[in-house]
Structure formats: C-alpha cells, structure tokens
Write a structure and sequence with these properties.
Distance between the termini of chain A: 66 Å
Distance between the termini of chain B: 60 Å
Shape of chain B: globular
Strand content of chain B: 15-25%
Largest interface: A-B, 19 and 22 residues
Oligomer: heterodimer
Largest sheet of chain B: 7 strands, mixed
Radius of gyration of chain B: 26 Å
Radius of gyration of chain A: 23 Å
Structural class of chain B: alpha+beta
Number of strands of chain A: 23
Number of helices of chain B: 12
Strand content of chain A: 25-35%
Helix content of chain B: 25-40%
Number of strands of chain B: 19
C-alpha cells in the first residue's frame, strides 16, 4: 500500500502533522524509533514541568510557610518519588499520543527511518528487519538533541545533559550549569529549590539572553536572591573530571575554578538529520526549506526543530500543520512570525513579539507601558507580588508589538497578547476589553493604560 | 468517504473556470480517468478527469456556469456509501485547510453551509461579475453589506491613507485584512494611479463605459481568455518600461533557401517550411547567443534563462495564445516547424495543456501573413522581449554597387523591457537576428 504521507519522527511536529493529514482523509504512517511524543513529551517540556511543580511547592512551603500561616516540624521530600512522578506523567501522555494514532488510523511504526529517495522511507526495526514504505509525500520531523560541548562529553554521571538531569538520582549536592537559556534556568531553579548548590554560567551578558533585557535583569535578581550563583559574560575555558565530580574553569573579568558533583551542559541543540537522500542544510546543519516547507528534494518536506530555531514544541506543532495543509491543498502555508516563549522557573517569564532591543534595532517607534504585580490585588492575595508586565506599542497607531511578563502565571497570561498581536489589535481594543477582577490579567490591562497615561492603580 | 470534486486550478493564472458541459450525469458510475466534464479556463478548454472510482451523486453547478477555483462542483460516492447528512457534509469542507484559510470566516461558516445545502445551485448568478477577489466570500460579504474582516490596525491605517477596505484581499488569520494588505494596496494605487487596488481587481481595470451608439450594438460578455488578455496586457503595457527597435532585413537569401528546401521537401513528400519557421529558428539561436535578452525581471534579481522556451503567438477565434516550443535552442528547423504546426492546431481547437503554453522565455509574434509591414507587440510578461514580424515586401533597394534594383525586404521589430534589456543588448540581439536571417545557412549548422 502506498501512503499519502509518511511522517518521520513522532514528536510535536511529527505526531501533530500526522494527525492533521489523517483529519484531511489521508493515509498516514508515522515512523518513530522511540516512544511517541518526542523530546517534548518524554524528555523535555512535560516531565520538567512535573519536576518544577514539585520545586515550586517545596520552595513555597520551605520559605513562605510561616507568612502563609503554616508550620512544619519536619518538612521532607522523597527525591526518587519526585522523579518517578515526572516519569509517570510522561508515560501517561505518551500513551495518549499512541491512542490518538489509533483513533486516526495512523500506522505508528517503531523503527529508525532513513529516506533512500523521494517517495520511499526505509524503516529498520529494533529486530534489525528492514522494510521499505512508499508515500507521495514525506514530512521530516526528526527534531534535535542536546548540543554537545567540546571537551566535556556527557557521561550521564558527572557530566549530564537535560535528559539525564531529569532522572539524576541521587540529587547532586553541587551542580554547575553551563548555559542560561530556558533549559539552564529551569534546572537551576529546580535543583536550587531542593537545596543543591547551583552555579549558572552564561557567555552572554544576561540570563535568558533572548528575552527583553529588563526582564532578564529582574530574573537575575530574583534567582540570586533564591541562592543561585549567576556568572554572566563568562566563558567556560577548561573542564576536567575529578574523582568526585567535575572541575570547571570560568573566565570573565577574572578566572575562577569551580568544583561540583556534576556539570549540566545546556548550550542549545543539534539537528538530527535522517540518513539517505542528501537534503540541503543551512550552515548549522538544520534542513533548509522553501515557502511550502519543501526541502531541496521535491516531495520531501520538513517542520519542527529540524528546520532551525526557535526550538519550541508549540512552534513545531504549528509548522507541521502549516506544512501538511500546504501539501494537500493549494493554500499557501504560513511561515513563522510571532510566537510566545516561556520559561517555567519562579518567577515565570513569558514573552511574545519584539523586545525593546529588537524594536530599537529595527528603528520602530514605540511606547512602553508597565505595571508591577505589587499593585495588583490578586497577586497580593495570592502572595505573589514579584514581577511586572511590560508592553510595547507601535507609534503612531498604538498596535501592540511586544509583550513581556515576569511573575506568577506569566506563561498563562501571555496567550491574550499573542492573540492581540496576531489580530493586530491596538491599545484601544485591549483597553476597552473588560478584564475580570480580581485577576492577574488586570496587570496586563493596567500596563496598556500605563502606556497612554490611563492606568488607574499606579 | 464521499469525495467532493472542486473546480481545479488548471493554469497559473486561472482564478475561475466555466463548466461547459457535464459529460457524466447524476447517478452515472465513474471510474478513475473517466471524463467528468469539460471546463473552459482562461486559456483553453479541458477535460476534467475523475481521480477516484464511484457514483456521481450530486452536481452543484450546471452547464455553462462560471465558478471560482476550489468551489464545489460535485459529490462522488464510493461503493456502498450513502450521501452524508447535511451536518456531516459541512465537516470535510471545514477541515479542508484551504477552506478556513481563505474562504470561510467563523461568523459566516454556519449560514454559509446551510445556504449551500439548501441551494445546490450557485447563489452567484453567472451574470456580469464585478471585481473578482481571490476570496469570493469576502466579495460577497462586501456586496451584501456584511462586515469587512479587517484588523483594528488595518482599519486605522486604511482610514489614514484613504484606502477602501471592501474587496481588498486579506492575508491575515481567516482571510482578515491586515496592515500589510492595506499598505500594499496603497502602494499599488500610488503606482498605477487608479483607485482599484491591483490584486483586488486584476481582470477589471477601471474603464470609461462606452455610450451606446445604435440599435445594432452588441454586448459581448468577456470569456475567461478575454479577461486574462485584458488584465495581462494592461499590466504589461502600464508597468513594463517598453522601448522599441526595428531593422529592415534583406529577405532574398531567406526566400531562396526556403525555395530550395521546399522543392526538396516536396519531392520527398515532406511538409513545407514557412517563413515563420525560419524566424522562430533564428530567434531561438539568437536568444542562445545573446542570453541577456532571454531573461526576466524578478524584483531584486534578473533571471537569465539557461534555455530558450520559445513562445509563438497564435490567433484563435476569440483571442490569442502563446504556445511554447520547449528548449528551442536544441531543435532543428524541421523539429520547430513540425512542433509549431502541432501546437497551433491544438491552440485553435483549444486543446492545449497548461504545460504547452506556460513558461515561455521569449516570444515571436508574426502578422506578416495579414500584410502588416511593421508593428510593435506588447511584451508577454514575465518575459522581457518580443519579436514582431512583418510581411516580406518587394521594393526597390540600393545594392552593393550603388544601383537601384528590385529586392525583398522584411521588417523585424523588438519590444524590450528596459529593466532587463538595455538598448545595446536589444541592438545586439537584433543584429544577431539580422545576421542569421540574411545568411540563413548559419542557423542550420
């Protein structure tokens, strides 16, 4: 039987693309060498959110219990259980994806795929048996994996990547994290909350370097207050493993050497290009595509992490839907413009659209509106007064061009602003929309007002 | 699963098609490859084939109706399938990616589905159709006074620039008009100086309606081809900076060579060559020799073609088409001659396939057989050069010895796109054509 579409990879781009094609009435197979769900569901977004929920609760109970009127005599945690819960959440969701495959009659093939030529996918099972499947179109959604650091090879014990970091047992006493992007920052928060001594090293001037600088600086203060040692503008120049762990030399203005049980390498990702037909790659090794998500090989398409940054599950899902819609219709697929980015430490960080830096670089005239959660009733009632909302409006029309939130539930609050940017809302539509009282979302409303001198509570 | 058959897009420029005649009737069994209907596009009449087996359960468009590309034409049921209930029927349409992207707004979805279910015949009358947008739903919405879907920012910018939102094509979520759409409409207006934004009304340029003159006046509805000619040539003549070159060529050697070859061909029972065959051959060779003339303007770049896709204007009943001789630089005179005969015959019977008239890189237009002695054709975009060929005329000429003698002359003219072809390049190309045609043996080697 010939398929209409074979999807290579079962992560967010792969499984979503496969389901969309099935919804369009197509015969679809999805080839994945591991469990469905990809990095996101098995070794990324989802299991880490489980760990962070534990960290948040423990941090709250340990540091804030007395403010909130609780008293504990012997607050304790069970590290193995925390990890087991995180794995159980992944298991549940992965079986959910497998259920969706069955529901949509998608052939879920557990094998390592290669693409000998357009129209053909070779699937090699764990038993070594190989079968060739045929399809009119192929969607490559093979994703990416942690980028290795030269001279500091991951060994799963003293040098780990994010995969090992979420199952490390016992808990390290001292941890050095190289790279302060979302992954580095989330693990820094997680381990620090449970009492690991954490050093976070970043080459660029700020943690979460792609975020608005004001947000990054605010986060640095909050994390430092929590006890994380942060070294920005700092480069790892020497590494060695010792009997008990690792030794890392960091150079900034001065040279410092740190010893730790373990080093976590979080310096980005590398592409996982499937074997076979030679696909045109960009200088960093990610697959190059055209406006229809097609590679240089006609009939072979690609979406998700494998086509380059931003490496985000929600972007991958969206791209896969665009690509599949394009494959099976004349409609022109859209390419990525605006997308939210979220970091789930506490305080949380979320953003969509342009940073102040980017707006200035592009020569866009803009106005800024800000509102602190300290002046928001719900934030005070919830005991979460840290952080603020910062919004950027284009001039002269007042369209929203960027939104940046640091604080409790920032990652949930950002959705409204993504919609606003996508629909080209101006400050007037946001201003005229009633935001429920008392909610954290009132801070968004007040930040809009603040830009135009109309905020009530500040 | 029941299969909805839609108006296919049969050429690059096709936005609508006329269903000339259903070949299969409701209730007929259909096999893959069967001809379902005949469809007239802007370029040709084509047979629409079935891609699935089944029974033709319903047709939504009757013979002679013109509909947009992508519009539902019929429903095909597989063996043992029954017609889906109405609520089901709207479902595949909703999940079709093209539908939410370009056609159905959330607000309009439901009433629209009901309308289609209850009135299988098209609500749009086949009568004169105003400015066609890519998005027929929106045009309909504007006509019926429904709200125009535009972003708040687009509305502000449009008000400021005085751009009409009605009939603007939207590229935002669900076909919504966004700022970029307004800005590009404004830029187009600034460029063309007309109120109608270009993408919105490609086929109906602003025209002063003619006053009726007498009882004998006839109004002729524009067919798809005439609309395309009107739109494309207006665009070409108003947006391409044309300039013109011409040269009179000594046609004596050409006429003699043709005579020799035709005498031989006649003896061998082979078809004769026309003068135009030689001109096509010479154009192919000259274009290969002067590749800068065989090129297109592409915004930030110029595309210089690596082969000569030679288009040849053919007049047909209600218009003209330009079928293309592929890789003409590699073909012999006999091959070109045979091919152009075949293509012209197909063009006249409207049997050209899209791949037979798309992708030309340079065009030859010959009005010599009508006795025209010289003219300048309009460039056929995205090409940059068209060769206009007049008739061979007998006239007195001054020969090498300075004496006035009877001679045979033909005028070749070039219309060039100055963005791509400068005067010197055009002149070089024309000189090459002249050299080849005055020593025609050169192009046979």
């Amino acid at each position: 039987m010939k398929y209409d579409l074979i999807v290579v990879g079962g992560g967010p781009a792969g499984y979503v693309g496969a389901i969309r094609a099935a919804q369009l009435g197509k015969r679809v197979a999805c080839v994945e060498k591991e469990r469905a769900g990809g990095t996101c569901l098995n070794w990324g977004c989802i299991p880490t959110k489980s760990l962070l929920r534990n960290a948040e609760l423990y941090h709250l109970l340990r540091h804030r219990a007395s403010d909130l009127g609780f008293r504990f005599d012997n607050l304790a945690y069970d590290w193995s259980k925390i990890i087991a819960r995180s794995r159980a959440v992944s298991d549940k969701l992965a079986s959910g994806v497998e259920f969706l495959f069955r529901k949509h009659k998608i052939d879920n093939i557990k094998a390592t795929a290669s693409i000998p030529e357009a129209g053909r996918v070779s699937c090699k099972g764990a038993d070594g048996k190989e079968q060739i499947l045929e399809a009119d179109s192929i969607l490559v959604a093979t994703g990416a994996t942690s980028r290795p650091m030269p001279g500091l090879a991951v060994n799963g014990k003293t040098v780990i990547d994010s995969h090992y970091a979420m199952i490390i047992d016992p808990q390290p006493k001292r941890l050095i994290i190289i790279g302060a992007g979302a992954i580095g920052v989330e693990f820094a928060y997680f381990f620090n909350a449970f009492g690991t001594e954490v050093t976070l090293v970043e080459m660029l001037p700020n943690v979460l370097p792609i975020e608005d600088t004001e947000i990054s600086v605010s986060l640095e203060r909050a994390l430092t207050k929590q006890g994380i040692k942060i070294l920005t503008n700092s480069k790892v120049t020497e590494t060695s493993t010792t009997k008990s762990g690792v030794r890392v030399t960091v150079e900034s203005r001065e040279k410092q050497t740190f010893e730790a049980d373990c080093a976590l390498v979080a310096i980005g990702v590398s592409p996982l290009v499937p074997a076979g037909v030679s696909l045109k790659l960009d200088p960093k090794g990610f697959i190059q595509i055209d406006d229809r998500y097609q590679t240089n090989v006609p009939g072979v398409y690609a979406a998700g992490d494998i086509i380059g940054p931003p490496w985000l599950a929600h972007v991958a899902m969206w791209e896969a839907i665009q690509a599949v819609n394009g494959i099976f219709s004349d409609a022109k697929p859209k390419r990525l413009k605006t997308f939210p980015g979220c970091t789930y430490c506490q305080p949380q960080v979320a953003s969509v659209g342009l940073t102040e830096r980017a707006a200035k670089d592009q020569g866009i005239k803009f106005k800024v509106g800000k509102f602190p959660f300290l002046a928001n009733g719900k934030a005070l009632a919830a005991g979460e007064p840290d952080g603020f909302v910062k919004l950027l409006f284009g001039e002269p029309h007042g369209e929203i061009i960027g939104a940046h939130i640091i604080g409790a539930e920032a990652t949930e609050l950002i959705a409204e602003l993504g919609l606003a940017i996508n629909l080209e809302a101006t400050h007037e539509e946001l201003e005229e929309t009633i935001h429920a009282h008392p909610t954290l979302s009132e801070a968004v409303h007040e930040a809009v007002g603040n830009a135009f001198g109309l905020a009530i509570h500040i | 699963m029941p299969i909805t058959i839609e108006m296919p897009k049969l050429s690059d420029t096709m936005t609508e098609g006329t269903l000339l005649r259903w070949v299969k009737k409701v209730g007929d069994n259909v096999a893959v490859g069967d001809v379902l209907a005949e469809v007239e596009t802007d370029k040709a009449t084509m047979e629409m084939e079935a891609f699935d087996d089944g029974t033709l359960s319903e047709v939504y468009v009757s013979d002679g109706q013109t509909v947009q590309v992508g519009q539902k034409l019929a429903l095909l049921l597989g063996a043992g399938e029954s017609k889906p209930s109405e609520s089901k029927e709207s479902k595949p349409a909703e999940s079709k990616p093209s539908a939410p992207a370009s056609k159905q707004s959330d607000a309009q979805k439901k009433p629209d589905a009901e309308k289609k279910a209850s009135q299988p015949k098209q609500p749009e009358s086949p009568a004169p159709q105003p400015a066609k947008t890519a998005d027929s739903e929106k045009a309909a919405a504007a006509e019926t006074g429904q709200r125009v879907k535009a972003s708040p920012l687009a509305k502000k910018v449009a008000a400021e620039l005085g751009v009409q939102l009605e009939n603007l094509p939207g590229s935002g979520p669900g076909g919504r008009i966004i700022r970029d759409d307004v800005l590009s409409a404004h830029e187009n207006r600034a460029e063309t100086g007309t109120q109608a934004p270009k993408p919105a009304a490609p086929t109906t340029p602003a025209v002063v309606p003619p006053q009726p003159v007498s009882q004998q006046d006839v109004q002729i509805q524009l067919g798809g081809m005439r609309r395309t000619i009107a739109a494309r040539l207006l665009e070409a003549k108003t947006t391409i900076p044309h300039f013109y070159l011409q040269a009179e060529i000594d046609a004596e050697p050409l006429v003699q060579l043709r005579q020799q070859l035709n005498t031989a061909n006649e003896a061998a029972g082979l078809p004769k060559f026309t003068i135009n065959d030689f001109i096509l051959k010479a154009t192919a060779v000259a274009a290969a020799h002067v590749p800068k003339a065989n090129a297109s303007f592409a915004g930030d770049t110029i595309v210089q073609y690596g082969s000569v896709q030679l288009a040849c204007a053919v007049a047909i009943d209600d218009g003209l088409v330009t079928p293309v001789i592929r890789d003409a630089q590699t073909k012999t005179l006999s091959q070109i001659s045979a091919e152009v005969k075949d293509l012209a015959a197909k063009a006249r019977s409207k049997k050209l396939k899209p791949e037979q008239y798309q992708g030309g890189t340079i065009t030859v237009s010959n009005l010599g057989s009508y006795g025209v002695d010289q003219f300048f054709a309009i460039i056929n975009p995205p090409q940059s050069l068209i060769v206009s060929v007049g008739a061979i005329l007998k006239k007195p000429v001054v020969n090498a010895a300075g004496a006035i003698v009877p001679g045979q002359r033909i005028v070749l003219a070039l219309s060039c796109d100055h963005r791509v072809v400068d005067g010197a390049i055009g002149a070089q190309f024309l000189a090459e054509l002249k050299r080849l045609l005055e020593t025609p043996a050169l192009m046979l080697v």
